[in-house]
Write a structure and sequence with these properties.
By secondary structure, this protein is an alpha+beta fold. The strands form 4 sheets. Strands 1, 2, 10, 11, 12, 13, 19 and 20 form an 8-stranded mixed sheet that branches. A 7-stranded mixed sheet has the order 8-7-15-16-17-14-18, with helices on one face. Strand 11 and strand 12 form a beta hairpin. The mean pLDDT is 96. The structure holds flavin-adenine dinucleotide (FAD). Flavin-adenine dinucleotide binds next to helix 1, strand 14, strand 18 and helix 8.
Length: 347
């Protein structure tokens, strides 16, 4: 039997999961090693796909290119594999000040704004009694990926096929050979590290984030709402509220301060009683220049990292781009190269 693999993947958060699916869809043979470590990003992720930087009402990096790709990737994958967890869900931004109304109006009049922004009545806001003294605007092409649900569905499938090994794989277990790498006695062309915030990579900054889940009796929304924090409907009057950003002591787990910060912002626009059901903390793997980190790092070795705070939107493009580079000889986009000068100069 042919024992040679195309890739060994280390880490199966969002990056490793999407890469695994991408490679398997291309008929490539992979083995995945993953051990859940406290602070991993994907189990804490809100899972929101939002192509707009809401502070400035401009598209996020390459949003118009990445969005259709992400929409197609997750909808086809969930349909093919039979998991539920990909939901198209518009986002309504509540304007915090009159200045933001002007900013939105100007943004709507740009090429990207005409595609991404709208101003339409949202009756649910009135019905729910949400507070919006300066009005609101809608980003219709947003979505929610239930990341833990996707990971769990893929986990079962990979375990069934013997493709997933649930344990840590240390660097010294990867032996470089003339043909690629050897791991656990198996040969592979590539070892691809998708170890997120646990990686040691120049220019990678770990950024802690926290969310809470609240139960808000009587509030029924079919949209996400954003004012300082996002309010993401999970069903049954439950909502995820997020996220915080912190740069110190990032692996310290859920904190009282983050919870208080989130709830204070929630109370700015939800004047209803609610109960906190859950709190999660994770660490985003963020590049200094906020771009993904991809490429060949040494003989037989490659990396997919730096998904930052927009991992769901970025991952399908990053995985396809890395696969084209490693297995079809396509050139790597210099903006995402792991050794780009922007990253190392700053670090
Ligand atoms: C609070 C919070 C909210 C967020 N909200 C959003 C959002 O709304 N939308 C969005 O798009 N993004 C969001 N993000 C960002 C998103 O979560 C990340 O971009 C993404 O999850 C990063 O995935 P990753 O696979 O690179 O890292 P991780 O999810 O951390 O995965 C790395 C995996 O590798 C494993 N691992 C590491 N080393 C080894 C080893 N040696 N052997 C075996 N396994 C190993 C880890 O245990 C882990 O399972 C949020 C993040 C946080 C923290």
């Amino acid at each position: 039997m042919e024992q040679r693999l195309d890739a060994v993947i280390i880490g199966r958060g969002l990056a490793g999961a999407v890469l695994t699916e991408t490679l398997r869809q291309r008929g490539l043979r992979v083995r995945v090693y993953d051990a859940k470590r406290p602070g991993n990003a994907s189990l804490a992720a809100g899972g929101v796909v939002n192509p707009v930087v809401l502070r400035r009402d401009v598209p996020s990096w390459r949003a118009l290119e990445l969005l259709p790709l992400a929409e197609r990737f997750y909808s086809e994958w969930s349909a093919r594999a039979g998991w539920q967890g990909w939901h198209q869900l518009p986002l309504v931004k509540l304007f915090p000040t009159p200045k933001e109304v002007d900013q939105w109006t100007r943004a709507m009049d740009t090429d990207a704004g005409r595609v991404l922004l709208q101003q339409v009545p949202e009756p649910e806001l009135e019905q729910g009694g949400l507070v919006h003294p300066h009005g609101y605007g809608t980003v219709p092409r947003c979505a929610w990926l239930n990341v833990p649900a996707m990971l769990e569905a893929q986990r079962s499938a990979l375990l069934n096929e013997g493709v997933l090994v649930e344990r840590m794989l240390e660097q010294d277990a990867v032996r470089i050979t003339p043909e690629g790498v050897e791991v656990d006695g198996l040969q592979a062309r590539w070892c691809i590290r998708c170890d997120g915030p646990f990686a040691s990579l120049a220019g990678l900054i770990p950024v802690k984030g926290e969310t809470v889940v609240v139960h808000i009796p009587g509030l029924h929304l079919s949209r996400m709402v954003h004012r300082g924090v996002f309010l993401l409907p999970l069903g049954d009057e439950r909502y995820r509220v997020g996220s915080t950003f912190a740069w110190d002591d990032v692996f310290s787990g859920p904190s009282e301060a983050a919870r208080a910060w989130l709830l204070e912002r929630l109370r700015n626009f939800v004047h209803r009683p609610f109960e906190v059901e859950e709190q999660r903390a994770g660490v985003r793997p963020t590049a200094r220049d906020r771009r993904p980190i991809i490429g060949v790092t040494g003989p037989g070795q490659a990396v997919l990292n730096g998904l930052g705070s927009r991992g769901v939107l970025l991952a399908p493009w990053c995985a396809a781009h890395l696969a084209d580079h490693l297995f079809a000889g396509a050139p790597l986009d210099p903006e995402v190269a792991w050794d780009r000068s922007g990253l190392s100069e700053l670090s």
